[in-house]
Amino acid sequence: MNNFLKQKNEWREVLKIVKQLDPKKLEIVKSTLPILKEHGETITKHFYQRMFKSHPELLNIFNQTHQKTGHQPKALADAVYAAAANIEDMSKIMPALERIGEKHRSLQIKPEHYPIVDENLLGAIKEILGGGATEEVLDAWADAYEIISDVFIRMESNMYKTTEAQPGGWGGFRDFIIDKKVDESEIITSFYLKPKDGQDIARFIPGQYITIKAEIPGQINTHLRQYSLSDRPGVDYYRISVKREDEKENDIPAGIVSSFLHHQMKAGDILPMTAPAGDFYLNTESPLPVVLLSGGVGLTPTISMLNALIAEQPEKEVYFIHAARNSRVHAFKEHVEGLAKENKQVKSIFVYDHPSEEDRKSGVIAKEGYVTLEWLQEILPTKEADYYFCGPEPFMRVVNRALKQWGVPSDRIHYEFFGSFGDLAANVE
C-alpha cells in the first residue's frame, strides 16, 4: 500500500513540471475542441486502421475485440478530448490519468509508442477533416499532444520503477505456471498461478488486476487481457477467475482468450504476466463499513476484498451483495455463504434475475430481479459506508446512479470498469 500511494504522489508531482502550451496555440486547440468532439470517433477509427497498417506489430498489444465493438475508438476519442479540454490544468482529471497510466504500465506501453500515436493521430485528423485541418491547427494539436504524451511518459516511468523495485516486483512479462484450475460455476473457472522461477511475488492491493499474454496456436498475434485478482494478497500464488465468453448475437464471436484459457490451458502450462496494477483498490484505513456490490464475473475483485478484510480486519462490518442470473452461473456462492456463517460481521446478499425453481425454494435469494436504490435503502442500515462495485456496464450504471441519488459522497464510491484502456469512466456516469 505504501509503495502504491507513494507512486500516486509522484504522479501528481509530474503535473508541476509539465510545460505549458503556447497561448496562441492554446486558443486554437480550444476553438477546435467542438470539431474534435463531433468527429472524434470517426477520427480515432481511422487512426487505428492507419496505425495498424503501418505498424502491424501493435496488434500484439491492442484488444481487437474492442476494435470490432467500437469501444476502443470511442475510449480514445473521449480520452483525447478530455485531456485537451483540461490541458491548462490536468490535475482536474487526475483519477482518469491515473487509471489510463495504470492500464498502460500493465500493457507495457513504452515511450517509443507515443511518437507512433502522434504521427497517426495527426494524420487521421488531417485526412478526416480535410481543409478544416490547416497547418496552423495541426501544429497546435501537435504541441498539445506532445504535452499530453509527456505527462503519461513521466507518470508511467515512475510506475515502472516503483513496480520493479518493490519486494517480489518485476518488469515486463514474467512466466507463471498454472498450479491448478478450479470450476467455480458453469461459466467461470479459477486459475491458481505460481511463478516459474520460484521467487517471491509482489504484494498487491485487493481490487487490482494483472495482464496475461496469451500465445494461442493458429493466431498470428499474441493477445493481452486484464483480469482482476480474485484472492487476497499475502499468499504464494495469484488467482484469476475467468468467465468463458461464448459467441453472442450481433456477430460478436466467442472470446478468443477466455476460450483458450478454459479449453486449452491446463495445470502445468505457462502464462506470462505483468505485475499487479490498477487504481481500484480497497481503502484499508477507512473506519466505515464496506459494501461490496458485484454483477456476474464482476465479483472477482470484490471476492479479493472480502477475503482480505476477513483475514486482516476481522472486525470490519461488510455487506457482500452479488447479482447473477441464477445459481448455475453464480461463482463462489458456497465460499461467501460459509464466510458469512463463520463471521457475524459479514452479510451475504444475493440477487437473481432468472432464478430456477430450485433457487426460489432454497431461500438463498434476497431479491428476484435487479438491484435498485429503493432496495439498497431497505437492506442497508445506513448509507454511511465505503462502496466498491464492478460488473457489466448496465449494472455499473444503475449502481452508480443509485448511490449518487442517495447522496453518497463521491470519495466513497469506487468502481472498476474493464473497457478499453483509454476509458475515462464516462460509461458508468
Automatic annotation (TrEMBL):
InterPro entries: Cbr1-like_FAD-bd_dom (IPR008333), FAD-bd_FR_type (IPR017927), FNR_nucleotide-bd (IPR039261), Globin (IPR000971), Globin-like_sf (IPR009050), Globin/Proto (IPR012292), Hmp (IPR023950), OxRdtase_FAD/NAD-bd (IPR001433). Its EC number is 1.14.12.17. GO terms for molecular function: FAD binding; heme binding; metal ion binding; nitric oxide dioxygenase NAD(P)H activity; oxygen binding; oxygen carrier activity. It comes from the Bacteria. The record marks K103, E416 as: Influences the redox potential of the prosthetic heme and FAD groups. Keywords: Detoxification, FAD, Flavoprotein, Heme, Iron, Metal-binding, NAD, NADP, Oxidoreductase, Oxygen transport, Transport. Residues 171-283 form the FAD-binding FR-type domain. FAD binds at Y209, R225, Q226, Y227, S228, F417, F418, G419, S420. Binds 1 FAD per subunit. Binds 1 heme b (iron(II)-protoporphyrin IX) group per subunit. Its cofactor is FAD; heme b. Residues 20-157 form the Globin domain. The record marks Y48 as: Involved in heme-bound ligand stabilization and O-O bond activation. GO terms for biological process: cellular response to nitrosative stress; nitric oxide catabolic process; response to toxic substance. NADP(+) binds at G296, V297, G298, L299, T300, P301. Residues 168-429 are annotated as: Reductase. It catalyses: 2 nitric oxide + NADH + 2 O2 = 2 nitrate + NAD(+) + H(+); 2 nitric oxide + NADPH + 2 O2 = 2 nitrate + NADP(+) + H(+). Pfam families: FAD_binding_6, Globin, NAD_binding_1. Heme b binds at H104. The active site is at Y114, E156. In the C-terminal section; belongs to the flavoprotein pyridine nucleotide cytochrome reductase family. Belongs to the globin family. Two-domain flavohemoproteins subfamily. Consists of two distinct domains; an N-terminal heme-containing oxygen-binding domain and a C-terminal reductase domain with binding sites for FAD and NAD(P)H. Is involved in NO detoxification in an aerobic process, termed nitric oxide dioxygenase (NOD) reaction that utilizes O(2) and NAD(P)H to convert NO to nitrate, which protects the bacterium from various noxious nitrogen compounds. Therefore, plays a central role in the inducible response to nitrosative stress. This is Flavohemoprotein. The lineage of its organism: Bacteria, Bacillati, Bacillota, Bacilli, Bacillales.
